[in-house]
Amino acid sequence: MLYAPLPMHIPDGFLSVAVSVVLWVLTVIAVAISLRRVSADLDERRVPMMGVLAAAIFAGQMLNFTVAGGTSGHLMGAALATILLGPWAAILVMTTVVGVQALVFQDGGLLALGGNIFNMGVIGVLVSYTVYRAVQKVAGGQKWGLYVGGFSAAWLSIFIAALAVGLQLALSGISPANIAIPAMAGIHALIGVGEGLITVGALVFIYASRRDLIEAGEKQQTGGAIVWFAGLAIAIALAIASPLASSNPDGLEWVAEEKGFLDAAQGPLYEIIPDYVFPGVSNEAVATIIAGIIGVVIVFGVAAGVAYSRKKRLTA
Amino acid sequence: MHIHFLDPYHHRISLVHSLDARVKFVLTIAFILTTALTPHAAWPVYILLFATILAATLLSELGIGFVLGRAALAFPFVLAALPVIFTLPGPALTSFSIGDWTLTVSQSGLERFISVALKSWISVQAAIVLASSTPFPDLMMAMRAVGVPRLLVAIFGLMWRYLFVLADEALRLLRARAARSGQADQPGLKNGGSVTWRARIAGGMAGNLFLRGFERSDRIYMAMVARGYDGEVRVAPLPPLHAGSWLALGSGLAVLAILLGLAYWL
Fold first, then answer.
1. Are residues A251 and A122 in the same domain?
2. How open is the CA angle B119-A267-B86, to the nearest 5 degrees?
3. Which residues on A lie below 8 Å from B13 (Cβ)?
4. In terms of domains, do A71 and A117 share one?
5. Of A104, A179, A198, which is closest to B8 when you measure between CB atoms?
6. Does residue A187 share a domain with residue A64?
7. How far is the C-alpha of B50 from the C-alpha of B65, rounded, in Å?
């Protein structure tokens, strides 16, 4: 594969079912609101634009630059999409990018897709929006606001999304909070610098050649105060929750247990009937062996069937 | 040089390829959900799940080596679950020390780590069989069938159609950079400029790619308008499911329900 994706796409098997479902619900709500807002725009130009720009972000993730020791910086694109398209279209564009990555390229799982869209699409875009708007306000329309806003939006979108991934892994009981969160945060604090530099480079280029696109992007920053505060709330909540969770992992485990997360993850019935055996078979090892034999029979049966039908097709 | 090799679809004449995409899509999601719901350390059920997906791979005639090879791509993330071996409380198996640190491997920790790795490995195989045996337009039909809004499906479709065009553009940009900034062949030689300089160049390329995307989307919009586009996304109605497809869907879901029942009942 030519593009080297961020270590942020969670595969299947890592998130517990409860965490996956909650993240799917949040994602569906955010995408539904975005679809409604984009449709209300009545700008029919935007449908092909979002499709092609999603393709551009996907392809843009192939562009990398070497940092040191075989590592390289590259683009996630949430901040760039937010600055150029506004938050609503950016959420749809990132949803499409992450969706195709999972559906076609197995980059991130299908059950975990809700979480991946939420982290990279929703959190990435909302945090970018909040930061970029705030810096723009302070800069008062001066040129440095574009670059400082672009860099900080890009860096923070990666960093906060990484905190979210760490927290979700900890809630799923996969990785202890005091290891998962600092590790994700540390790696992505560096990756975020690459994202920030590329985003600024792209903005400089577009500002020099098609300033009207940046100005058109300004007009699309129509999230309003609610979205601005939503981005702020996500950023602050994750920034506060993460150090708390990692300095007090038992607390998180307690929350997880209280909320029934761990139960849902491990299966309450399994706790009630601890002996793991086939009916009438009193030994776990025997059950495993029987399962193995059944598996081998299934696979060989299918293999024989396929071989037979292929032979018939060839001779026919 | 074109980048069509990105497309994972492999044409074969097989049962799995001829199965209705909607059925395949729902069964794949159901399989991954079953795998996720299976408790940790349910080894017999993992074996049966693996046998099921291996049987599907055989039926798809994609080749076991191909599917397992692609599945290996998903492995690096397993590192994220590694610490759980040492941190989950449970009977200690063994312990070793690195410097001042003493790491104790607990049995429940090791079981959970192996379970997560296996579940993730089994799930990704299902996703690979789906993507490699189903052309993208059929996947879009499946997305519509499970209720993804039309507008979003239309954006997915446009993205897929132009992905290869823009990936080609990105390849050309990379080739131009390699030709102009004197990429060093020998390891250890610096290949031009400071890190910030290189990052700015990559950023300029990304901006360039965006601009090409913007301009192309304008032309696409004009072409769409010329052909009658009025802002409404129109799609052909979904064809009805054949009896055979219903049968495949029902029996597939039944097998998964039995596996899930085994996982909890045993």
1. yes
2. 60
3. 313
4. yes
5. A104
6. yes
7. 15
Per-residue model confidence (pLDDT) at position B36: 92
Poorest-pLDDT segment among A2-11, A76-85, A157-166, B137-146: A2-11
Is B241 in CB contact (< 8 Å) with chain A? no
Window 122-141 of B: residues touching A by CB (8 A cutoff) are 122-124, 127-128, 131, 136, 139
From CA A173, how far away is CA B104, in angstroms rounded?
A: 18
Look at the block and give the residue holding tokens 């292929």: A310
A263 & A280 share domain? no
Enumerate long-range contacts of B177-184, CB under 8 Å, 24 or more apart: B177/B201, B177/B205
**Model pLDDT for residues A75-124, shown as the tens digit of each residue:** 888 999 999 999 999 999 999 999 998 998 888 889 999 999 999 999 99
**Beta strand B92-98 with A72-74: parallel, antiparallel or unpaired?**
unpaired
Residue A218: count other Cβ atoms within 10 Å of its Cβ.
Answer: 14
Domain that holds residue A216: 17-268
- Cβ-based contacts of A12 with chain B (< 8 Å): 32, 35-36, 119-120, 123-124, 127
Residues of B in contact with A42 (CB under 8 A): 231
Same domain, A55 and A72: yes
Q: What is the pLDDT of residue A274?
A: 41
8 A C-beta contact, residue A306 and residue B59: yes
Amino acid at A77: G
The domain that contains A264 carries what CATH number? 1.10.1760.20
Inside any domain, residue A234: yes
Task: Tell me A42's DSSP state.
Answer: -
Is A293 domain-assigned?
yes
Model-wide pTM > 0.90: no
**Alpha-carbon distance B239 to nearest alpha carbon in chain A (angstroms):** 22
Same domain, A212 and A311: no
CA-CA distances (angstroms) from residue B199 to A59, A253, B171, B192, B194? Answer: 17, 40, 17, 12, 9
Q: Is the CB of A109 less than 8 angstroms away from the CB of B123?
A: yes
| B240–chain A nearest CA distance, Å | 24
Distance of alpha carbon A274 from alpha carbon B89, whole angstroms: 18
- The DSSP letter of residue A234 is H
- Contacts for B65 with CB less than 8 Å, ≥ 6 apart: none
Q: What is the pLDDT of residues B159-188, one digit of tens each?
A: 999 999 999 999 899 888 888 876 655 666
Number of domains in chain A: 2
Q: Are residues A264 and A289 in the same domain?
A: no
